[in-house]
């Protein structure tokens, strides 16, 4: 278990609210579902990393427009302004630019103004491969992190690239961790 300033900030921004709709993109986790339901929220789950392999093949190119449309239809089929929060975890770092742009654009559509997103990216800008993890919420400030294996990163991520990627959003805030992860809070 480790502390997460990004998770702490995510839940701090949602404090004193109930009945919110939260999308967890790390796959169905009983710990995460229980935690979010206990806070009084509705929970939806997707496993974006697993879906990358299902749609594009393991480490296959993510450039085919039909496959990109299929990925979006399977993973972000929600109505406009449905979510108040999205836990993206480390899923976006494994997407190529041709897939990442449409995914972020779709996330902007399915989140309400003022919604918060939490995403993790490697702090090393030269990483061509990064470990993938499953994230389990222990409490509003701590997560349990379990390795899933290494995967190729879709592109290089630095603060400027991430600010550009989320340029249609209201704000982007960064936290650097001991594990060489950049935790990012994005406000729609």
What keyword list fits this structure?
188 residues; alpha/beta; Rossmann fold; six-stranded mixed beta sheet; three-stranded antiparallel beta sheet; 9 strands
What order do the helices and strands come in, and which of them pair?
Blueprint: E1 2-3, H1 5-13, E2 21-24, H2 30-38, E3 42-45, H3 48-56, H4 65-75, E4 83-89, H5 97-110, E5 111-122, E6 129-139, E7 142-152, H6 159-165, E8 171-176, E9 181-187
Parallel strand pairs: 2-3, 2-4, 4-5
Antiparallel strand pairs: 1-7, 5-9, 6-7, 8-9
Helix pairs in contact: 3-4
What does this structure look like?
- By secondary structure, the protein is α/β, with parallel strands linked by helices.
- The protein has a single domain, classed as Vaccinia Virus protein VP39 (Rossmann fold, 3-Layer(aba) Sandwich), CATH 3.40.50.150.
- 31% of the residues lie in helices and 34% in strands.
- The chain contains 6 helices and 9 strands.
- The chain has a 6-stranded mixed β-sheet, sandwiched between helices. Strands 1-7-6 form a 3-stranded antiparallel β-sheet.
- The relative contact order is 0.20.
């Amino acid at each position: 278990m480790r502390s997460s300033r990004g998770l702490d900030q995510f839940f701090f921004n949602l404090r004193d609210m109930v009945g919110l709709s939260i999308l967890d993109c790390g796959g169905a986790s009983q710990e995460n579902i229980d935690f979010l339901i206990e806070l009084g929220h509705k929970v939806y789950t997707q496993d974006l990393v697993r879906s990358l392999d299902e749609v594009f093949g393991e480490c296959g190119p993510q450039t085919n427009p039909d496959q990109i449309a299929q990925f979006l239809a399977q993973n972000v089929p929600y109505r406009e302004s449905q979510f108040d929060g999205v836990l993206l975890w480390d899923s976006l770092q494994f997407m190529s630019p041709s897939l990442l742009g449409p995914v972020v654009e779709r996330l902007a559509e399915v989140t309400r103004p003022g919604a918060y997103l939490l995403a993790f990216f490697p702090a090393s800008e030269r990483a061509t491969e990064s470990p993938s993890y499953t994230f389990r919420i222990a409490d509003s400030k701590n997560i349990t992190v379990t390795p899933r294996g290494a995967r190729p990163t879709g592109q290089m991520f630095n603060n400027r690239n991430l600010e550009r990627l989320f340029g249609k959003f209201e704000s982007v805030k960064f936290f650097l961790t001991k594990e060489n992860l950049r935790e990012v809070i994005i406000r729609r």
